[in-house]
Write the structure tokens for this entry.
Amino acid sequence: MPGVPSGRGCDACRKQKKKCDIDNFPCSRCSRLKIDCIGHGQQRYKFKNKTLDLALPYRPAFKEALRSHQQVLVLQPTQNLSNRLSSLTSRFIHSISLDVDTRFQLPWNFGPFLVGIPCRLGRSAALDAATDTLIAAHTSFCAGNATSKQPVLAKYSRALSDLRHDLDDVVKARSAESLCAVMVLSIAQVRFLTSHPDAKPKLVQIFIFPSQEQGVTHTEGAAQIIKSRGFVTSSDDDFERGLLLCLRAPVVFDALLTDNIHFSSQEWELINVSTPEYQKLPDGRWFDCIAAIPDLLQRCKAALIMCSAPGLHLLALELETRSLLEDCKGIINPLRERLQEYDPAAKPPQLRGHLHAHFLRSLALALATVIILNCVLSGLEGTSDWVCEDSSRLSKEIIDLAERATIYRPLGSAAFIICLRIAWMGAANSSARKEIEMLIFEWDRTCMGLYENDTTLLELARMMRRFTLQDV
């Protein structure tokens, strides 16, 4: 991330505007006063978002999240800076820098709302604790699990306690900081669990494939907060709108995989509200398609269970599914062309890997969405040859994209963990599925530290039943 370099003195000397003895640690002043020498030798910058602006044509969601942060990231602290708050802010800015390798990049893979968090630190104990947890988990992950998991677990437990305290307060529960803390903890949970292979795989599946018996996940909690406090259109705060826009994807995927998120058809329409610029791009049009599937699945199952005249109602649902399928297929060619025309030499060095990884996963997600709709159509109409052939072809293309995306594992290509599972559903025969299963096991081990192959096979079978409407 570009910025103007500042000094390397410790925080205490900088606060008192004293010259720091940077050649010795601790510095002579901190030694004399017997205080902690925090920040000694660290290069600081006044960060500006010029590099992020280069990404705006490709990630329009950045516009919403960064509109109020075009100056220095840490503009006006919400309280007098303490060593703790200053250190937390500095460490978090380092963690979200675009200069971080695509394999470990946070904002590009989890949402540009992260860039606005430094301005919010100090307002909420829950957000501060959640941010500290994310930093610790991400640092442990990038270090190759060299650090102990106990400090990360202690921070995570403390953050949950602070969040529960805030959610008990009616005013704080509806604040953007509480919603942001939930989102950050959902990321930190995955980071912590992937950082430590000895963690229980069952916990990892809270994020990938939640089940009814696991209790309320962070994403479900966020969905409940959104439902109680309003949707994207109800917020006048740029940061909050950007946060809500980024939160849509995990909520939609959670609703795709479980019945734990309950929105009405009107609420699903509200959660799909986005910026006009984003909706014009293939990415925005793809999200319009996938965000319509959870409600479609609910109505299909209701029609199969309760309808007294199923033929008439199922015909309307079949036509709706076909229309959605055609819309989604119309997005694939523009995404293919964008990937084929991508020229890394024409892009800024900081964005080359990020853009390529984004283009790969965008196409893979669109292909996976078509396979899901093919499965739903098969559940409504019965299996047909053209649906099987189409899904098989798309499945092979996802596998090809996954091979190209291996250089961005684990975070830069994390979406392929889901895409490969959906590709398994579209495979033509048991032999092709067996090959995809081997790929899934490899990606689970590399990206998530999962070794429970039997559990994964059960989840694959459950997904197939769900999307083909056989679990009614």
